[in-house]
Model the fold of this input.
Amino acid sequence: MNDLKPATNRHLPEFSEKSLKTLLREVSRGQIAPCYLLYGEEEYLIQNTLQQILDFMIPREDRDLSLFIMDGEQEDIDALCGTLMTPPLLSGRKVVVLRNTRLFQSKVSLPAVIQKIKEHLEHEPYRAAEMFLQFLAITGWHLDDLKNDGWKQISNDQWSIAVGDNSWKERSSWLPIVVDLCASYGLATKHYREDTNRLSELLLQGLPEGNHLIISADTVDKRKPLFKTVSQVGQIISFPKVKQEIKLKESLQDIAAELLRKKGKSFSAAAWVALGRKTGFNLRASVGAIEKLIAYTGDKPLIEETDIEEIIGKTREDTLFDLTSALAERNLTKSLLTMNELFNRNIQPLLILAMLIRETRYLLHAKILIQSNRIASFHPNMDYLQFQKSVYPGIREQMPASGKKDTWLIAQHPFVIYSALKNAHRFSYNELLSHAEALTALDMAIKTTAKDPKLMLGVFLLKACTNIKQTLATAANTSS
Done:
């Protein structure tokens, strides 16, 4: 267990530091509370602490049967309580993790939620879209009503009453962007049960022996009864944002030093400056970059500025586009290498999945459009200029005058439509339908099980980029 000791975190706020050290010391000694709540703005530190708690509580080989994960966007009070009340399948502990919950949010939390949405827009757009759904659930507004400039119909007074502040003054800088993001990812307003009394009662009466609950959240309203219940029966750790630049750099240096020490590596002074230029010393982005640098520099002990420029140069959006292009081209090698790069850069599996879902949906729409014979003049060897002149005008005429679906292929930019039509010939209709169903199942598996998302996505890409039946037939013919 020695290698599981946390980074020193000596520059984090005093309350968080003392609570965190005490908690991990207790957990390492087997003094485990029924429930933990980890909340705050430093997402990397929250996830790192959650992982350390799990490492002390459940052996990795037992997690398929002893670890249950529920994502905040899919949380269900009844399902959560039912899982908590079910005894462990194996002897030992059973842990239920509820990630990024909104159960502690209220209108008091909305200014903080809005701030998180704006922060995530640049680096984690899918996370921003997910948090916007939380915003809608609290306000009672619906995504469909805000599309196509519908958000402009909300008066300043309505906004102030619903949100509780004057953030309407700058909403135009982020609100239309995140509305479009939700549409592009195929997200929709979700309806949540606000009844947390059952969970509170369950925690107060006591969980079955060996069962534990770990909750993570971005923002909380400490006046919520559930918050008071968790503080009474469990442990609550706060991870406020490290605001002072000097303390932020020193905190990151502590974490980086531990990561580099384990691999026998170090940073040159120029490399450290270059990393800050690339990541802004954001803890999550910086740690992801450091992990990638460790992997890509191999046996080289000193990481230098040239390594930073060479390896951290490409943006996440570029790499996501590389992945969807590789899928459309059925290029297995490129798709797996690109997926590995995204994971090395700490890109969320759900964002990778969302991009694969969107690309598969576009290819399926393109296949249907081709088979409908409504664009008979199109052929895969056609260049983009020809497409714009002879094919796109006909597609544009098929656009509904009202009720346009933002997720339809024909509603996208002409080049997106052109690319999907060119690549659709590589797949059969049944293949694309099967891939769409597989991705739906994969979405549920990532959100509700402890299975390795990277492995599941890799298996999907293997099947999507190769013709398994043809490969097996070829192998059989060769062996005979």
User: Anything to note?
Assistant: Strands lie at 35-40, 67-71, 94-99, 211-217, 235-239, 266-267, 302-303.
